[in-house]
């Protein structure tokens, strides 16, 4: 770092609160409370870093818990103290390079970030590259892709870095031409003078690196002057994708890395009792067989030979710890874990309901794949990692190497949905490479992915809504789930954001639950609680995490309450929403989706609403359930308010994907546990939606920009899933209680 | 080990491989052609979909011996140099892809469908089995319709 423009601010003081209960702040925190510092990074051409500092202090909240709006705010807070937060370079070749400390898995983040850079810098979008940064341990908690937080956490710093770079490019041009910097304009990666002279950013990059104090203010544009933000833009990697050039971990050509698969136990977390690899080692193309904690790895010249040799292994397995458990037993444990309702059903009318959600596999299209080259004194790995710093640290510890000796290249992922928060394959690849003494390319098979991969935990919900005189006066939601594994750095991040869970007397899962689960409606005295059943199985955050369960059950209940009270489902919701922006979303949905239009017998509309990540969304779906064995969503309309969409096209894609997830998990896609093993093994029986389940009519309508961008990657699923469930209920005259419905 | 010759994306290739080795692994592990993706290995997800003599196949299910002397086309061989195939262009115009992993297979399936049936109905498109875990189905449908309309005009 060269000569900082301003000294970095002090580490923000964060004070845990003392007395007041956890609460939802009524006004969102504005980004204006954060101060930004920019500084030059030592480089032959222009490179600018940004750093955030905190002006205000968080208010008080639950003892040990800072008062933050939601999980996204907590993660932003955790990321604040890291210097070198972002580095933006302008090279002498004219490329504008943002090293993105996040993972691209299809959510369109690289495109959105390129748009922000291009807009603020007045660069051509095609000149901007957004490679994924390798694991950078100095970022501490600021290299975690999750919680729909990437745009929220990067919107300001990326623009600030680009503004700082632009100011220096303008200053360099002003010096070269001996003109007043204020008289110059920028456009299309070029600085323009009033007399017609122009200089490309490429030609200015080296001079701009010597500009310590720019002669024009390095401030971001007012939103009215943004040219690209808010304009529907195609993905920057689309051409690579449609020509087959986009590279995922398994497509990398790392010298010497040989195809590798692992034979895994028949039950979850089963172990090897004994094995004989004689026959497998004699098979064509086989290079080696090594034992790792999770199974027996086979290395071969091709994956085909590795998989055939895997089948030739003779292995005795010890049963896994759940071998005595099946779905019924797990459901019983969940029911038993729930505390009783607080409000007794005395003298008041009430509506009780219980809901069950099955386990759901993440099943990203690209199975877990990792390349590892472990040597005696160093290791190099390549895989798609949402939490690369934790992965790097864990792998270094496993290998007995210092973190600095482990390089983790972050590679685009073929889908994730939360799966790549965990680095199971990366850790195994490191173990195998070390044991075999050579580089390996480890691929999980689809069977491995479904049977030994991670899952959204199964859950059981008990809800009691109390009503009197046509009004809901109380709402209790008791949630029990199999414990969700959050050991991918979340706890450390919350600790860094001044969360003291031991003072608060809650678990990490409960902190997550408290930070994410908010009922958007006024239903009188309301409460919700989480109980967890720890089981030795592989769980993890699945798109929307608790909201994908809790809010779906809530929204089904909202329809049933409306019916009980003789009200229209939309009007009932609207009357319980205090936020005018939320009511506006519902109103727009009614108008755009034609709510209430007559439907043929066996068809119905369904609606649901959800607010999270400082965004809100409502879906209206039309379902044809005339054949109850093959229901079809024929039309879907979504209305979203995300504050400000960076790329409406990317946002629409996320809401479309969330709809397909909602259709899948509500109607047909889940996994069973039979005697400690997953029954399903591929997309043949884990029935994620196909083209024939997708609505031929689909539209997204966005509310006008109203503030800083909210999160969107996980926004859609709860409302989409619930709208499908509500349409099913109305089309069939049933009350769905167990999801997926056809399971 | 037997040797097989076939035409891959317009170029003659010869490869030594066991007769029963699926084409997918011959392409990916022996020839370095990585556009066709592994997603299940059992012909269900169809992420590897490519063409054999112009017709759709799932290379994870086709042994290399069945390809001898024939024309294999993967996503890498679909464009005419820098000029994209109309289906690829329709994919760009509709910004179909999200993670992109299934899209080589989706595109090869759509090209084969439009060859068999230049004006597919919604019901025809519904019969496509390729899995897209990101849920891009609606845009796939729109892109296929656009490509079909473009070929009519």
UniProtKB/TrEMBL annotation, chain A:
It comes from Kitasatospora cystarginea. Residues 1-13 have a biased composition (Pro residues). It comes from the Bacteria. Residues 243-321 form the Aldehyde oxidase/xanthine dehydrogenase a/b hammerhead domain. Residues 1-33 are annotated as: Disordered. This is Molybdopterin-dependent oxidoreductase. The lineage of its organism: Bacteria, Bacillati, Actinomycetota, Actinomycetes, Kitasatosporales. Pfam families: MoCoBD_1, MoCoBD_2. Residues 20-30 have a biased composition (Low complexity). SUPFAM superfamilies: CO dehydrogenase molybdoprotein N-domain-like, Molybdenum cofactor-binding domain.
UniProtKB/TrEMBL annotation, chain B:
Transmembrane segments: none annotated. PROSITE patterns: 2FE2S_FER_2. Keywords: 2Fe-2S, Iron, Iron-sulfur, Metal-binding. Coiled coil: none annotated. Residues 2-78 form the 2Fe-2S ferredoxin-type domain. It holds the Pfam family Fer2. InterPro entries: 2Fe-2S-bd, 2Fe-2S-bd_dom_sf, 2Fe-2S_ferredoxin-like_sf, 2Fe-2S_ferredoxin-type, Beta-grasp_dom_sf, Diverse_Oxidoreductases. This is (2Fe-2S)-binding protein. It comes from Kitasatospora cystarginea. The lineage of its organism: Bacteria, Bacillati, Actinomycetota, Actinomycetes, Kitasatosporales.
């Amino acid at each position: 770092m060269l000569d900082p423009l301003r000294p970095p601010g002090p580490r923000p003081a964060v004070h845990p609160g003392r007395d007041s209960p956890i609460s939802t702040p009524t006004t969102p925190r504005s980004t204006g409370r954060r101060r930004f510092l920019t500084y030059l990074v030592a480089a032959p051409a222009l490179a600018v870093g940004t750093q955030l500092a905190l002006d205000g202090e968080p208010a008080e909240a639950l003892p040990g818990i800072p008062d933050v709006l939601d999980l996204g705010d907590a993660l932003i807070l955790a990321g604040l103290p890291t210097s070198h937060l972002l580095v933006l370079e302008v090279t002498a070749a004219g490329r504008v390079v943002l090293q993105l400390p996040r993972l691209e898995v299809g959510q369109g983040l690289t495109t959105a970030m390129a748009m922000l850079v291009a807009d603020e810098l007045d660069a051509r979008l095609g000149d901007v590259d957004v490679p994924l940064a390798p694991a950078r341990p100095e970022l501490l908690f600021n290299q975690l892709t999750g919680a729909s937080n990437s745009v929220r956490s990067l919107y300001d710093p990326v623009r600030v870095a680009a503004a700082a770079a632009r100011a220096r490019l303008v200053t360099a041009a002003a010096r070269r031409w001996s003109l007043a910097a204020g008289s110059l304009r920028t456009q299309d990666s070029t600085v323009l003078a009033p007399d017609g002279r122009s200089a490309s950013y490429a030609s200015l990059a080296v001079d701009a690196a010597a500009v310590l104090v720019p002669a024009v203010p390095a401030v971001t544009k007012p939103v009215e002057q943004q040219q690209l933000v808010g304009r529907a833009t195609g993905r920057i990697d689309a051409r690579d994708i449609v020509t087959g050039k986009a590279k995922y971990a398994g497509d990398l050509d790392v010298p010497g890395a040989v195809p590798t698969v692992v034979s895994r136990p028949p039950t979850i977390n089963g172990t090897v009792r004994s094995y004989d690899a004689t026959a497998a080692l004699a098979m064509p193309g086989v290079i080696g067989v090594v034992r790792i904690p999770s199974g027996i790895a086979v290395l071969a010249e091709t994956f085909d030979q590795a998989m055939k040799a895997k089948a030739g292994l003779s292995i005795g397995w010890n049963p896994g710890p759940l071998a005595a458990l099946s779905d019924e037993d797990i459901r019983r444990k969940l029911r038993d874990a729930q505390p009783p309702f607080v409000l007794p059903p005395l003298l008041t009318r009430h509506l009780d309901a219980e809901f069950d959600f099955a386990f759901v596999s993440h099943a990203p299209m690209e199975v877990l794949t990792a390349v590892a080259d472990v040597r005696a004194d160093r290791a190099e790995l390549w895989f798609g990692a949402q939490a690369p710093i934790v992965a790097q640290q864990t792998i270094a510890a496993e290998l007995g190497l210092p973190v600095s000796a482990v390089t983790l290249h972050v590679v685009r992922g073929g889908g994730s949905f939360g799966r790549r928060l965990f680095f199971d394959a990366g850790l195994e690849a490191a173990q195998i490479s070390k044991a075999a003494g050579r580089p390996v390319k480890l691929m999980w098979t689809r069977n491995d992915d479904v049977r030994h991969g991670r899952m959204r935990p199964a859950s059981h919900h008990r809800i009691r809504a109390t009503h009197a005189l046509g009004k809901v006066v109380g709402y209790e939601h008791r949630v029990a789930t199999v414990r969700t594994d959050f050991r991918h750095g979340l706890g450390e991040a919350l600790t860094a954001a001044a969360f003291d869970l031991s003072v608060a007397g809650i678990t990490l899962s409960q902190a997550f639950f408290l930070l994410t689960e908010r009922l958007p409606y006024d239903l009188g005295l309301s409460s919700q609680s989480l109980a967890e059943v720890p089981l030795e199985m592989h769980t993890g955050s699945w798109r929307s995490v608790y909201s994908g369960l809790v809010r779906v059950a809530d929204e089904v209940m909202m329809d049933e309450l409306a019916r009980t009270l003789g009200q229209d489902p939309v009007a009932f919701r609207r009357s319980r929403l205090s936020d005018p922006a939320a009511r506006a979303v519902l109103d727009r949905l009614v108008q755009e989706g034609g709510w209430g239009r007559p439907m043929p017998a066996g068809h119905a509309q369904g609606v649901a609403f959800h607010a999270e990540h400082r965004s809100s969304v409502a879906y209206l779906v039309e379902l044809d359930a005339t054949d109850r064995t093959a229901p079809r969503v024929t039309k879907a309309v979504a209305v979203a308010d995300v504050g400000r969409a960076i790329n409406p096209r990317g946002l629409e894609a996320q809401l479309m994907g969330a709809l397909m997830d909602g259709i899948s998990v509500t109607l047909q896609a889940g996994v069973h546990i039979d005697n400690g093993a997953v029954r399903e093994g591929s997309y043949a029986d884990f029935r994620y939606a196909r083209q024939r389940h997708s609505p031929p009519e689909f539209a997204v309508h966005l509310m006008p920009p109203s503030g800083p961008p909210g999160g969107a990657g996980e926004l859609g699923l709860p409302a989409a899933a619930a709208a499908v469930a509500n349409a099913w209920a109305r089309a069939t005259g049933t009350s769905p209680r167990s999801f997926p419905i056809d399971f | 080990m037997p040797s097989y010759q076939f035409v891959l994306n317009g170029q003659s290739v010869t490869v030594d491989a066991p007769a029963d080795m699926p084409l997918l692994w011959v392409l990916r592990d022996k020839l370095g052609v990585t556009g066709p993706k592994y997603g299940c290995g059992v012909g269900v997800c169809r992420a590897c979909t490519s063409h054999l003599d112009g017709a759709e196949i799932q290379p994870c299910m086709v042994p290399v011996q069945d390809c001898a002397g024939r024309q294999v086309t993967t996503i890498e061989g679909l464009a005419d140099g820098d000029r994209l195939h109309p289906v690829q262009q329709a994919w760009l115009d509709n910004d179909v892809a999200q993670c992109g992993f299934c899209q080589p297979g989706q595109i090869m399936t759509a090209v084969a469908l439009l060859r068999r049936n230049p004006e597919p109905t919604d019901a025809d498109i519904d019969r496509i089995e390729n899995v897209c875990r990101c849920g891009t189905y609606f845009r796939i449908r729109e892109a296929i319709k656009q490509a079909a309309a473009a070929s009519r005009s």
